[in-house]
Write a structure and sequence with these properties.
CATH architecture of the largest domain in chain B: Orthogonal Bundle
Shape of chain B: globular
Largest sheet of chain B: none
Mean pLDDT of chain A: 90
CATH superfamily of the largest domain in chain A: P-loop containing nucleotide triphosphate hydrolases
CATH topology of the largest domain in chain A: Rossmann fold
Oligomer: heterodimer
Order of helices and strands of chain B: HHHHHHHHHHHHH
Number of strands of chain B: 0
Number of helices of chain B: 13
Strand content of chain B: under 5%
Number of helices of chain A: 9
Number of domains of chain A: 2
Low-confidence stretches of chain B: 283-288
Largest sheet of chain A: 6 strands, mixed
Radius of gyration of chain B: 24 Å
């Protein structure tokens, strides 16, 4: 079990820079998720850690050893691929034992490790089948098994659940989380699915345009997003963004399109200059109806429409020309109509500088 | 829902008529050859080309195989048969082995302009062989390979390479890259990946390559004539010698039998591998 230390890693394909000055540190036993939209460089970063892609500059340490110039098999890693990449001509047993054979383990040792992994993943009855005879979920287990049998210090997952249907995905997610808790291995996991990231990770690195926007625990990421991008990418339904101007002084406030919101309760990191163009970010669960006794800054709004989502209903309200969403109880939402008074709980809101898109 | 799929519609009658006529067109010469080869010379002189033999005999086949004259020696076409076998096996194995490795290597190598390179390779595969004959003869006699078994095997291997390389490259290029990445993580190198993963997946394409090479090399005439040397003339060259070197009466029955014997190997390849061929392609196509 060991951590990773990535320092100022750069990678470009011709004129296109895919990774710029990446620094990433993963503690032993940590479950780090690289999260971002497609093309953000998360898979390239994972490939670089695995040693499958060459990098232009920077260093990669795994378990305290510099592995920058080592072959993938010399890095003490195991990997699960998006397409599973099972060897189609080999049986499941062959797939699990191939790497061990290549690395010249004894027959008894191979047998022991394969049956351990097969047992753990409940694929023992499938050992003599070929990958073509397995379902998607079974293939996924085999792919994980192939990684587990390796005596790896670090496990890399490249969007392993994206080819499964929604139900299986939820099941496998739980399974992976369980494996991590039982075996305590170090994991780096790539996904574009923020729910997968939130549920699995101990720390999430949100990436955009070849850079890490924020690297923090799921709670921190959700409650105190460092940039506008992170705020918008993490959380469903998404955070509402309200552009406005900050007014400093004795009772600081934010001038939105139609209303003026006192900013005293905002959790700001430091003083904000008067007249700064800002974006106020409010999550739907921090907006409630004032007449229900909710606390926060009261604003007048008009009901626009309701989006029932099952457990909650997402209510959309107009604030002048701007729009804000609130998470409401379904029964309550049915009675909401016309002008309402909304309570914004700004203690949990975020404020971003419009120019730099960074948290204030 | 095709209701009339099994009914005898006019279109279907036309289709069958076309198939029957085409089959007859190709089978008639074969029929003539077989019946002629089973006749004795007196019967052939009756000049009823399409008639079945009155008294079928395999004498002509025996003679063609074991005692027909090819120039000065009269040992039949069997000499050519075994020469062809000696040429074919090493040539087929070598050309496929080298083509598979080069194709695999090229499938991993994807620089800019690679399409152009393969275009050129493809074009080269279509350059008429005659162009190369003279320079190659000079080169081979310089290297001491001329008129020898290794010489002709080398020629077949070299000339099989463009096609074999392309076939294998295109096949291997279609195999997902992640499979190779997984093998690299597992610690396998270039040869291990080739031997343990790529080659077992390539069985259908190896069968295709074998059909191409076996028939191509067996049917070759000009390379055998130029590079094999008098001792190693392949069956095609020997057949030509039997048919063209006649003293006195032309023995059509022997000529026909010798031709049939020569055609037997490619024919057998199609019959035996045809099923494999389809099965291999189908097995590869079902699911990745």
């Amino acid at each position: 079990m060991s951590g990773i230390q990535v320092r100022s890693l750069k990678k470009s394909y011709g004129a296109l820079t895919v990774l710029q000055e990446i620094g990433l540190e993963v503690q032993p036993g940590e479950f780090t998720v690289l999260l971002g939209p497609s093309g953000c460089g998360k898979s390239t970063l994972l490939s670089a850690i695995a040693g499958l892609d060459e990098i232009d500059s920077g260093t990669i340490e795994i378990g305290g050893e510099d592995v920058t110039d080592r072959e993938p098999s010399q890095r003490g890693i195991a990997m699960v691929f998006q397409s599973y990449a099972l060897y189609p001509t080999m049986t499941v047993r062959g797939n699990l034992s191939f790497g061990l054979k290549v690395k010249r383990n004894t027959r008894a040792e191979i047998e022991k490790r394969v049956s351990w992994a097969a047992d753990l993943l409940q694929i023992t009855p499938l050992l003599d089948r070929k990958p073509g005879q397995l379902s998607g979920g079974q293939r996924q287990r085999v792919a994980i098994g192939r990684a587990l049998v390796q005596d790896a210090k670090l496990f890399l997952f490249d969007e392993p659940l994206s080819n499964l249907d929604a139900k299986l995905r939820t099941e496998m997610r739980v399974e992976i989380k369980k494996l991590h808790r039982e075996l305590g291995m170090t994991i780096v996991y790539v996904t574009h699915d923020q729910i997968e990231a939130m549920t699995l990770a101990t720390r999430i690195a949100v990436m955009k345009g070849g850079q890490i926007e924020q690297y923090a625990s799921p709670d921190e990421l959700y409650e105190r997003p460092a940039t506008l991008f992170v705020a918008g990418f993490v959380g469903a339904p998404a955070m509402t963004f309200l552009p406005g101007v900050y007014r400093a002084g004795g009772s600081p406030a934010i001038e939105l399109d139609a209303v003026r919101v006192p900013a005293g309760s905002l959790p700001l990191a430091g003083p904000v200059g008067d007249g700064t163009e800002v974006i106020l970010g409010v999550r739907p669960e921090h907006v409630a109806l004032a007449e229900d006794g909710a606390v926060g800054q009261i604003v007048d709004a008009t009901t626009q429409f309701m989006e029932p989502m099952g457990a909650d209903t997402l209510g959309w309200f107009g604030l002048g020309s701007q729009r804000i969403s609130a998470r409401l109880a379904p029964q309550r939402a049915r009675t909401v109509n016309g002008p309402v008074r909304l309570a914004l709980d700004l203690r949990h809101a975020s404020l971003f500088d419009k120019a730099t898109e960074r948290r204030l | 829902m095709r209701k009339n799929a099994r009914g005898l519609t006019p279109a279907r009658i036309g289709l069958y008529a076309f198939l029957v006529i085409s089959a007859a067109f190709f089978l008639l010469p074969l029929y003539v050859m077989i019946v002629t080869s089973l006749k004795g010379m007196p019967e052939i002189r009756e000049a009823n080309m399409l008639a079945l033999p009155h008294t079928p005999t395999i004498a002509a086949w025996v003679k063609a195989w074991s005692s027909a004259c090819t120039g000065l020696s009269c040992n039949g076409i069997q000499v050519g048969f075994f020469n062809s076998v000696k040429i074919m096996f090493p040539s087929v194995i070598m050309s496929i082995a080298v083509g598979a490795v080069t194709g695999y290597a090229l499938s991993l190598w994807r620089p800019r302009g690679v399409a152009l390179l393969f275009g050129i390779l493809m074009a080269v595969a279509f350059v008429p062989y005659q162009v190369f004959l003279f320079p190659l003869v000079r080169l081979f006699s310089f290297a001491g390979l001329n008129s020898s078994l290794p010489g002709i095997i080398t020629v077949h291997t070299i000339f099989g390479l463009p096609t074999m390389t392309l076939i294998f490259r295109n096949y291997f290029a279609g195999i997902p890259l992640e499979l190779m990445k997984a093998a690299r993580v597992d610690g396998a190198g270039f040869w291990r990946i080739f031997g343990s993963i790529m080659l077992p997946m390539a069985v259908p394409i190896i069968v295709v390559a074998m059909i191409l090479q076996v028939t191509g090399i067996w049917n070759d005439f000009i390379f055998g004539l130029v590079f094999a040397g008098r001792e190693n003339f392949p069956m095609t060259v020997q057949l030509n010698n039997i048919v063209n070197s006649t003293q006195g009466e032309r023995e059509y029955n022997v000529d026909m039998a010798a031709t049939m014997l020569t055609a037997l190997v490619p024919l057998a390849v199609y019959f035996i591998s045809g099923r494999w061929f389809v099965r291999g392609i189908a097995a590869g196509a079902v699911k990745g």
